[in-house]
Amino acid sequence: MEKIKFSHFVVVIIIIFGLTACTLPGFSTPTPFSFPTPDKTMTALFEPTQVAPATSAATLPGNEDQKTATQAVPSDTPEAEETEIPPTETGEPIETIEPTNEYVGPAVRSGPSIVAEYMENSPEIDGDLAGWDPPIQRVINHVVYGADKHSGAADCSGTVVSGWNEDYLFLGIRVKDEKYVQEASKEKIYLGDSIEILFDRYVSYDYYLQAMTSDDYQLGISPGMGGIVCYINPGKVASMVSTICEPNPPEAYKWFPKTEVGKITVMKIGALEGGEGYQVEMKIPWSLLGVTNPSAGDHYGFAISINDNDNAGTLNQQTVVSNVPGRYFADPTTWGDLYLK
Predict the structure, then answer these.
(1) Which residue has the higher pLDDT, 97 or 285?
(2) Domain encompassing residue 287
(3) Of all helices (H) and strands (E), which one includes residue 6?
């Protein structure tokens, strides 16, 4: 009986020793089991996703479409309504609509007319208007944008003289401007002191259409970034083709038609700084405006405007003064007329 009790006691001792052996020195501890940390990447797949709205490039004259922006949304969410973005004062129109027969009308715009005299001899394009034979036309005095920033004729106004021959359209502009500020280049030149030209090659084709088409042109001309800095005796003279004017000579840019957007290199420009402002001359190949055989008696849609910026160190189109009252850059029905005499 005592042997049985003793054997039972030995068994108990062995069981206790077996259960506690894993905690004794010399024995390895089993790796504890733990639930894994949730995978953040996988978790993100099931979290609500905030979708950023599609960006919309507001226009700089002519290098980007001013189209409506639509906010991107998940497929199970109703699509947001399109929000129209208003156009900038200068830049590419919202859309191009090809006209139909219902837009055909007269061949002459009813707005103010610039008369271009035929010139046997091409004027020297150096910024000096003194050598021109055609009369100066005092026409650029209608504030069409930024009237609250315009303090009078001395702040921004101008006169224009125009001529032509079989190869070129010649323009000379004398600008009154108390402070010259041009800090931009290329497509942004309208955000500084500059000249802007609107030209409709075939007026009757889309006479009643309030949108620009492929026969409409929008050009910008800068007298020079940072100032009119080129020097030729007896005054400050700049020429687009002269190496004297580097690094920032006058330049021209085409915003419209969309298929021809870019910096213009086939046009000669001269600029001259004066006591009350500056003068700009330009020699524009007819081919740049899509015209092939110009002749006396021709009429084209036309508007010429001056962009003004008086805040140095900024890109800002404060005021636009035009030869056409009510001129709007993207609506040819608000433009005037260019007559070849």
Answers:
(1) 285
(2) 103-340
(3) helix 2-20
The total number of structural domains that make up the chain? 1
Q: Which domain CATH number covers 317?
A: 2.60.40.1190
Flag whether 264 is in a domain: yes
Query: Is 147 inside any structural domain?
Result: yes
The DSSP annotation for 56-88 comes to: -----TTTS----B-----TTSPPPPPBPPPPP
How far from each other are the two terminal CA atoms of the chain, in whole angstroms?
143
**pLDDT for 279-334, tens place per residue?**
999 999 999 999 999 999 999 999 999 999 999 999 999 999 999 999 999 999 99
pTM of the predicted model over 0.85: no
Residue 198 is encoded by which pair of tokens? 């609107």
Res 179: pLDDT: 93
What is the band of 229 on the pLDDT scale with cuts at 50, 70, 90? low
Whether 36 maps to a domain, the answer reads no
Note whether residue 269 is domain-resident. Answer: yes
pLDDT given for residue 90 in this prediction: 52
